[in-house]
Write a structure and sequence with these properties.
Helix content is 85%, strand content 0%. The chain has 112 residues and is mainly alpha-helical.
Length: 112
C-alpha cells in the first residue's frame, strides 16, 4: 500500500506540476505515468510482491501499464467531454482507475 501511495503521489506531482506549467493535459498525463512506471516496476517487484525482477516480468508489467493507461484515459475523456474545465478533477479520477486496474493486473498476472 505504501508503494502504491508513493507512486500515485509521485505521478500526481509530475502531472499537476506540468499542467500548472501549461503543458497539454494529455502530454502531462503521459509524462507523469512514464515517471511513475519506472519507479513502480522497481518498487512493486521488490517490495509489494516480493518477486525477482526479470525481462518477462518487465514486458508483462509494461503491457499492464499500457492497459491501465488506456483505462485511465476513459474517465478523463468522459469528464472533459461534459465538463471541459474539470481538468484536475478528471486527472484524479483517471488516477484512481489506473491504480485499481494496475494493481489487479499486477497481482493476478505479472507478479504471481
Amino acid at each position: 500500500m505504501v508503494v502504491g501511495l508513493f507512486n500515485t503521489g509521485l505521478t500526481g506531482i509530475v502531472i499537476f506540476s506540468l499542467m500548472y506549467a501549461n503543458v497539454n493535459i494529455y502530454l502531462a498525463n503521459a509524462i507523469g505515468y512514464v515517471v511513475g512506471i519506472i519507479f513502480s516496476f522497481i518498487l512493486n517487484t521488490l517490495f509489494t510482491f516480493n518477486s525477482t525482477p526479470s525481462f518477462s516480468r518487465l514486458i508483462k508489467f509494461l503491457v499492464t501499464c499500457g492497459i491501465a493507461y488506456l483505462v485511465n484515459l476513459v474517465p478523463i475523456k468522459c469528464i472533459l467531454f461534459f465538463f471541459p474545465d474539470y481538468t484536475f478533477f478528471s486527472q484524479i479520477i483517471g488516477m484512481i482507475f489506473y491504480t485499481i486496474t494496475g494493481f489487479l493486473l499486477n497481482r493476478f498476472w505479472v507478479m504471481k
